[in-house]
Amino acid sequence: MTKYCFSEVPIINQKLSEVILQSYDVQNSILPNHWILPSGLRVGFSDQSDGDMKIVDNCRKYCADLGVDYDKLVMPRQVHSNHVLALGNDADCLKPGQADGLFSDQKHVLGILVADCLPVYLFHLPSGRIALVHAGWQGIRLQIINSALEQFD
Fold first, then answer.
1. pLDDT in tens, 58-92
2. Per DSSP, what are the bridge partners of residue 35?
3. How far apart are CA 145 and CA 121, in angstroms?
């Protein structure tokens, strides 16, 4: 089953989430696998109990459970590339097309689907800039993480 990674906040991956979130002194959890950082940024991971996130109704319910507007969710059509899309402040960014990473300095709700790939989150809290990357073996070989880091320059 495909997992869905919701984010207004980046972390490295689900296995490291506890360590990273503890380093930010996260004390509140809104749902299992969902946290709010002291800055107000959120991170969450769906699991099998949330259903397949390729099904719109499941994704809508997941967003509603988090108190997030599904209509503001930005999810690329992932193609195992090194393309990271920088999102603007316009409505067109809600349908981003093909990419395997998203970068934003705006208030967007970013999402990707992962199964055997890693969700990689990068962020700079003082500026509010974040990137969410779908990192599979092909994207890693094509240096997608470097592509995302270049967006922060």
1. 888 888 887 788 888 888 899 999 999 998 776 66
2. 29, 43
3. 10
